[in-house]
Structures are given as C-alpha cells and as structure tokens.
Amino acid sequence: MKTNKTSLSTQDVEESPAIWPTRKYILRLFVAGATDRSRQAILQVRKLCECELKNNCDLQVIDIYQQPDLARENQIVATPTLIKEFPRPERRFIGNMLNTSDLFIELNSLTKGKIEP
Questions:
Q1: Which of 20, 87, 100, 117 has the most crowded CB, counting CB atoms within 10 A?
Q2: At 75, is the pLDDT very low, low, confident or very high (cuts 50, 70, 90)?
Q3: Are strands 25-31 and 81-86 parallel, antiparallel or unpaired?
C-alpha cells in the first residue's frame, strides 16, 4: 500500500540528497505568550521568510507557555529564540530580531556550500 507524505521532517530532508539543492530552510521560532516582543519577532521572521528567503522555508512558531515540553526539549532559556534546523549546521539566534538583513546574512554565511548529509 502506498502512502502520501504531505510534510517533510528534518530527518527526511537530511536523508534525501535530491532535496538538498532546493536549500529549503527549516526554522523554529520560540516566543513567550502574546506580548509585543513576541508579535514583533514573529512579524520580522515572517518578513525574513517572505522577502529574503523567497518563501523557501518552513517556519514553525512555538509559544513556550502553550508547549513547555518543546521548550525543554530544545533547551530554550530565553525568548525570542530562532533555531535554523536545516540546512546544517543548526544555529540559534536569541533576542532582538529587528534586523532581518543581518539575520539573513548570518543564515547564508553559515550554510553556503555546507549542506551536510
């Protein structure tokens, strides 16, 4: 029996070299509640995804108050925290996300030619 997979996990992407050239970013943004700072971080990271990454990313926004287990699993100690899971290496950006251009430059400089299986 054949099954259709509608979404890719990080493991699926890492194990499939055919997908690597798309350089689809997998991002997780951890925020704390519905504060102004959280809303601002969400807006800025979405802007980064739309403008700089040309919607070539999967963004998951996680409220640590709603999902404390995920915060513990990912060792979140401060918010907002943006985790770039793929392409490797995994990187974390903590705090002020106002400057999306700097964030984009940092994401690209860390991944250029460094996609690891």
A1: 87
A2: very high
A3: antiparallel
